Amino acid sequence: MANAREMRLRIRSVGNIAQVTRALEAVSASKVRKAQSSVEASRDYARRVANVLGRISTYSQGSAHPLLVPRDKVENIAILLISSDRGLAGPYNMNVTRAALEFAQEKNKPARWVTLGQKGRDLAYVRGANIVGDFSSFKSSPSFSDVTPIARFLIDDYLDSVVDEVYVAYTDYVNTIRQDTRVVRIMPMITGNPKDDENAQASTDNESDVGYTYEPEPEELLEAILPRFTQMQVYQSVLESLASEHSARMVAMRNATDNANELSAALRLAYNKARQLSITSDLLDIAGGAEALQQAG
Fold first, then answer.
1. If you count Cβ atoms within 10 Å of the first and of the last residue's Cβ in the chain, which end, N or C, has fewer?
2. Distance between CA atoms of 163 and 150, rounded to whole angstroms?
3. Which CATH class is domain 23-251?
């Protein structure tokens, strides 16, 4: 058993760790609130843009825009993997990277990987992923222009026929406790996805009988809107991933703090027992010595 000095050092060390994890939890909690408000604000916008895009594509009478038309033969795919640069976020980085790798294995097609975040990049590289683009994760809430270079990189690869499909692997923020990993196709685009959402369905039903007049022609609108909508999809995925990252880190640090407190309490109990045992032994030695002196006298 460790002596009293070693146990005091361990108690102090665990207490210091608990202070660090408690501070990280507080920082992540503040970031979660900000990221959650950004996600909720952009979700409705992205949903309505998708609805408008679906209507325009319907009125365009089968537009042959390359971002809408699936390729006859899919030979190569691109995967945008969104993770973080920092750890201490529980299984956040591992889950999204595993989902992306399993998806690439199921597709069984040559994949070009574009990574956003160091952790996911390192995990994918170890598994032999062909990484053709790497971007640093954002330290704070990104703007739309911050995400534009990533989207333009993917759009250029798709329009130049370097790849035939483009997917994004990210973590969808549901609530503080739950975050779901998703791998979705963004090129060629799938219009009308928002109809799967209950709220979007209600708004779509309310506007289903409304007629629209487009100026300029739908084809010209699609030419201007489609690239920007792709950028919006990437931007929304980044916001969802940031909210999920901060939430996962907050929960992980809370669990670490609780575990440190439990370990500290157990160590203090063991220390007190050892100290009591030492005091009892000393008292017995004193009592035994006094009795021996009394008998000798």
1. C
2. 15
3. alpha beta
